[in-house]
Amino acid sequence: MQFGKYHGLGNDFILIDNRQCDQPLVSADEAVKMCDRHFGIGADGVIFVLPAQNNCDYTMRIFNSDGSEPEMCGNGIRCFAQFITELEGQEEIGRKYPIHTLAGTITPTIKGNGMIRVDMGEPQLMAEKIPTTLGKPGDKVINQSLTVEGIEYEVSCVSMGNPHCLVFVEDVENFSVETIGSKFETNPVFPQKTNTEFIQVMNPNYLKMRVWERGAGITLACGTGACATVVAGVLNGKCHRICTVELPGGCLEIEWSREDNHVYMTGPATKVFSGQFL
Ligand code: ZDR
């Protein structure tokens, strides 16, 4: 099995050329083995470039490192776009690739120098769309109280195709993401589980965030999570619509457009190596 290994700010993925077949060439169980950092290649997920659907150029599917299948992956789709330029044998600056995902059509644009800008679509805010039982159907979940392990947090919820729970904290460096993250992920108020972002506001143009990802645990970056962070920041009056999000692996530039309500994410995608999995 040929693969490419990419990362977006340290959120790393195995990319598979699956253009000849409608179904992923590896099973969820095999993906778990490939993602293992000691017995496999090592990655946060496996991403497949599948044939086009719905008037798009390609279809993206992804398995998390635990074998679950998320609807979308923000850092992953930048790597996906960079991988396509390699498969197609040319990198055309300004070229847009509409990609069919389980979260609808997502469109990366090649900016050059390994940078990709992605139209991530519109955030979904209604409780049933996250999904969460923290609010009534039709209600937004902004600054609601949620008790986890006996501690009360004020949380906001945003779907970028996948679920995010956003928590603003005073000191993100010293916040115990490693112990509390999984308690948010599996909290019964999130029937599809959730990704959770812990955010410190440095100023209205600059947020620092650490993430616990559903199905992957702590990762160095999360693209959908950075988008959800800015949406929650704007809705809570904490940041501007154009904002830098610093993650452990580096920075993403996020814009929540007033004109079309879409969220735009700009950041790098970097190839590390290619190889053959036995
Ligand atoms: C967070 C993520 N890596 C990204 O960059 O958007 C997406 C991975 C999918 C996530 N773990 C989920 O929703 O299950």
Low-confidence sequence ranges: none
Choose one word for the global shape.
Answer: globular
Number of helices: 4
The CATH superfamily title of the largest domain: Diaminopimelate Epimerase, Chain A, domain 1
The CATH architecture term of the largest domain is Roll
Bound compounds, each kind once, are: (2R,6S)-2,6-diamino-2-methylheptanedioic acid
End-to-end span in angstroms? 7 Å
Mean pLDDT across every amino acid position: 97
Report a brief summary of the structure:
With 278 residues, this protein is of the alpha+beta class.
What's the topology here?
Elements: E1 2-8, E2 11-17, H1 28-35, E3 45-50, E4 58-64, H2 74-88, E5 99-101, E6 104-112, E7 115-119, E8 144-148, E9 151-159, E10 163-168, H3 177-185, E11 195-203, E12 206-213, E13 217-219, H4 223-235, E14 242-247, E15 250-256, E16 263-268, E17 270-276
Parallel strand pairs: 2-3, 4-5, 10-11, 12-14
Antiparallel strand pairs: 1-2, 1-17, 3-4, 5-6, 6-7, 7-16, 8-9, 9-10, 11-12, 12-13, 14-15, 15-16
(2R,6S)-2,6-diamino-2-methylheptanedioic acid (ZDR) is lined by residues 11, 64, 70, 73-76, 162, 195, 213-216, 222-225.
Protein traits:
278 residues, Diaminopimelate Epimerase, Chain A, domain 1, 17-stranded mixed beta sheet, 4 helices, 16% helix, 40% strand
